[in-house]
Amino acid sequence: MGVEEAGEQSGIMNHRILVKSDDLHRVVAELKDAITAPEVEKLLGVPRLHLKELVAGGHLSALADTGSRRNSKRRFSTEAVEQLRTRLFDGACEVSEPTERQVDVIGARRASTCTIPRLLDMVFTGKLSWKGRLAGRMDYLGLLLDADEVTRIVRSSEKRTNLTREETEAFLPGTHDRVVNALIGLGHLALIEEFSQDARRMIPVVSRDSAEAFRTRFVSLGELCQKTDLHHKQVRALLRQAGIAPTCLRKQSALFSTRGHRSSISRPNARTLGPTTRHRFRN
Length: 283
Hints:
By secondary structure, this protein is α+β, with helices and mostly antiparallel strands. Helices cover 47% and strands 15% of the residues. The protein has helices at 3-9, 21-32, 37-44, 48-56, 78-88, 105-112, 116-124, 147-155, 165-171, 177-185, 208-217, 221-228, 232-241, 262-272, 275-278; strands at 35-36, 75-76, 93-95, 102-103, 131-134, 143-146, 191-196, 201-206, 218-219, 248-252, 255-261. The strands form four sheets. A four-stranded mixed β-sheet has the order 3-5-6-4. A three-stranded antiparallel β-sheet has the order 9-11-10. Strand 5 and strand 6 form a beta hairpin. The longest helix has 12 residues, at 21-32. The N and C termini lie far apart (79 Å). The relative contact order is 0.07.
């Protein structure tokens, strides 16, 4: 029995890894002169948080898939860093004495309350009509941006698409703040973050998709009371007569958040509710 056959029949896992020689030489050549993230920070003069966003946004790639695993250390080529520097200052005009509104990346972000990823997108995708460079500087913080232009782009972007809690109350008839909070806690409504033009920051909002899905699937006791002009006890009694049980029952002061399927409500009404009341339960 040869060595190879013996290995197959030994029952011991084979930990040998075969690598193509061409790939090995390429990786070794790439990593030979590679630099670490702290070295990139020093070479480019970029803050650590901004470097992370440069990598996350695909503006600077790590070598040989380094950094793809948790707690692994990324390695970068000096050439890639210099290419990033060139792209960073592409089209920038030299400025000896910047005005009060011609600021570096950090200053532009603070003035416009813009996120780092979005600001980097403006810089690298040509959305800015003006970029400057401090005379004698070629580091990351030597880049100058027009704070007014950045602010204008941020404020002219699409308006918020999701719902505040107050807007959710109007979107879901028969609810109020405590009911909305309860539905969020129960997982019926998804709470996410979205940039607010008014607050100039990220704020918690209710996902419009989750609110629409909820409104499609369920109807509240409060909504039925509003549609029928009946007391909630009368509505609950009629639902019990129709054999419709609440999907979720939670008492919030004088309002009960009772959720039942809309289709389940309309079908029994046609059989059991009187003609005057029946149409009031239809959507």
